[in-house]
Design brief:
Elements: E1 2-5, H1 7-15, E2 23-27, E3 40-41, E4 56-59, E5 73-81, E6 95-99, E7 111-114, E8 118-121, E9 124-127, E10 149-151, H2 159-167, E11 172-176, E12 180-186, E13 190-191, E14 202-203, H3 206-217, E15 220-227, H4 231-242, E16 247-251, H5 262-268, E17 272-278, E18 287-291, E19 294-299, H6 303-321, E20 331-336, E21 348-357, E22 360-365, E23 382-386, E24 398-403, H7 413-422, H8 439-442
Parallel strand pairs: 1-17, 5-6, 12-15, 12-16, 13-14, 16-19, 20-22
Antiparallel strand pairs: 2-11, 3-10, 4-6, 4-7, 5-9, 8-9, 17-18, 18-19, 20-24, 21-22, 21-23, 23-24
Helix pairs in contact: 1-6, 3-6, 4-5
Length: 450
């Protein structure tokens, strides 16, 4: 078993142990948030025919060549076509067909004029200005062309994408099965929020925050409850969890104290221990093992440390199991909005909130940065990556931030894709994270701006 490894080493060791899960088909009502297991090709043009975008009259533009306010053109209205019906007649010179929004454009017509721009009089309409051919006509395939790829394998199904698939006639879509993530809390001091709080006890926040993180990612959490600091009981509970889940996450009991029993429980199971401790703060005491081809990852019991290591270590694994292309957090160069006045003998991840001002992305440190300080995670949407051996940091310094997946609203999917393909390297000061992009503060309007 390796000890004290770099975060990047831990990520690669663990990612090599997981793979995309099986696929299945689900209804569109079940599809939101799921990950597509294959490319989806458009089955038809959208719209499937030339249609009117408004209520009006379909006619030939050449009939309006001489129209003006003093000499209006009169056309005979020969038919009315509601949406959902096909025209029975053809538009010819001197005629028009009344047409509703969404109705097919009649044969012979090359323009639609809206109701309010004409005068109606005994089955004729008067037009008072010249029209340009093609105006107010939505062409077949204008939105989606038959045969084009409308969604790629690994894409997350969003509400607009579900709408496009429905418009294409897809009742079912192929998706990757949701990973089942067992969450187990350890510790004699931990109790459920439903219980009365006694002296020396604390409520179990880790179970709820990590289960919520799984739901936000699109995974299925399996809360396994709380087990005391006893290696035999922990081993039994982990064994039970392995029978139900694709991956098992524990919190607490992974440090060097007399009651930190998770590493011993893994040995009791005869699990293959991969590593113990990652060179980072918070969350250094992470233990990882494999048993029956399934990963077991023990995280710190400190609430903030558990959430941060979950984001950096566990989330990439869940995303790979879900079939997503991007596993590791995206990074962005930032300017510090405020200072951090402690030295960092080891690599440190500071909780921050990103915002954009004058085309620059700033990172504002928020709240307490201690291992157990949970409240500062509420507004945290990024982590500032501070190199080991760094001294105090002052406002205005440049750095690099990792964008947390749980706060994806700061970064549109379009900006993520552009970032992946832009491949703009960070400075050599930050060799461990390779890619960032100007699109973060040029193209992406979802980053909070001051």
């Amino acid at each position: 078993m390796r000890t004290g490894i770099l975060l990047e080493e831990a990520q690669q060791i663990l990612l090599a142990k997981v793979h995309s899960l099986q696929t299945s088909c689900v209804t569109l009502f079940e599809a939101v948030g799921r990950i597509l297991s294959k490319d989806i090709q458009a089955a038809t043009d959208l719209p499937p025919f030339n249609r009117s975008p408004l209520d009006g009259y379909a006619l030939q533009a050449r009939d309006t060549a001489e129209a003006d306010t003093l000499s209006p053109v009169s056309l005979a209205v020969i038919e009315e076509v509601p949406a959902g019906y096909m025209p029975r007649q053809k538009v010819t010179a001197g005629t028009a067909i009344k047409i509703m929004t969404g109705a097919p454009i009649p044969e012979g017509a090359d323009v639609v004029i809206k109701y309010e721009d004409v005068e109606w009089e005994q089955n004729t309409v008067k037009l008072f200005h010249k029209l340009k051919a093609g105006s107010n006509i939505v062409l077949a395939g204008e939105d989606v062309a038959k045969g084009e790829i409308i969604a790629k394998q690994g894409s997350r199904l969003t509400p607009p994408l579900v709408g496009v698939l429905a418009a294409q006639g897809f009742a079912y879509v192929p998706v990757v099965r949701k990973p089942k993530v067992a969450i187990l809390s350890t510790g004699d001091e931990v109790i459920d929020p439903s219980e009365a709080l006694h002296p020396g006890k604390i409520y179990n926040s880790n179970m709820h925050s990590l289960c919520a993180s799984c739901i936000a990612l699109g995974a299925d959490p399996l809360p396994m409850g709380i087990v005391p600091d006893n290696k035999q009981l922990i081993a039994e509970k982990i064994s039970h969890a392995l029978g139900q889940a694709d991956i098992v996450i524990t919190t607490g009991g992974v440090s060097v104290g007399d009651y930190d029993a998770v590493p011993d429980a893994l040995k009791e199971l005869s699990a293959d221990l991969l590593f113990w401790k990652i060179e980072m703060k918070p969350g250094s005491p992470v233990v990882a093992a494999v048993h029956n081809n399934k990963l077991i990852i023990g995280l710190s019991g400190n609430p903030a440390a558990a959430l941060i290591t979950f984001d950096l270590v566990v989330v990439p694994l869940i995303k790979k199991m879900m079939g997503q292309d991007r596993h590791l957090p995206l990074t962005v160069p930032v300017v510090l909005a405020n200072g951090f006045y402690k030295s960092s003998p080891q690599r440190r991840f500071l909780r921050a909130q990103l915002y954009r001002k004058n085309r620059t992305v700033y990172a504002k440190l928020i709240g307490e940065q201690g291992n157990g300080a949970l409240k500062s995670m509420i507004d945290c949407n990024a982590l500032i990556d501070v190199n080991a051996g760094s001294g105090p940091m002052t406002a205005g310094e440049h750095g690099v931030a990792l964008i947390l997946d749980s706060s994806a609203e700061i970064l549109s999917e379009e900006a993520i894709i552009k970032a992946q393909h832009q491949n703009v390297h960070l400075t050599t000061k930050y060799p461990t994270y390779g890619y960032c992009t100007r699109f973060l503060y040029e193209a992406d309007s979802n980053v909070y701006s001051e």
